[in-house]
Amino acid sequence: MPALPAAPTSPAGMLMLALSSFVVELRLRIDAARRRRRLSTPYPPTQSDVIQIASALIHRISHVDVTLMSKF
User: Fold this and answer.
1) Is the dihedral of CA 50, 39, 29, 3 positive or negative?
2) Which UniProt keywords apply (predicted)?
């Protein structure tokens, strides 16, 4: 089995990790919403969806910022 990559230590690496995990979480939320609404085709996000997604992204970016500041 290949070894897992080390955790990023650079600010850019940490931001990319936060954004990629956000994208995965976003896809899971969209899939869950589709299942709840029982739709087989994509739907445009509602205003509530956009607010929820934006707040999750802000939370992730602020967490990265706090983590970076604690390292210096």
Assistant:
1) negative
2) Membrane, Transmembrane, Transmembrane helix
Count of structural domains, the chain: 1
Distance, in Å, from the CA atom of 64 to the CA atom of 56, rounded to the nearest integer, reads 13
Give a yes or no: residue 6 inside a domain: no
Containing structural domain, residue 64: 11-71
What is the tens place of the pLDDT at every residue in 11-66? 777 777 777 777 788 788 877 777 776 655 566 777 887 788 778 878 777 766 66
CA distance linking residue 35 with residue 28, whole number of Å:
11
Task: Flag whether 49 is in a domain.
Answer: yes
Flag whether 4 is in a domain.
no
User: In whole angstroms, what separates CA 1 from the centre of its chain?
Assistant: 27
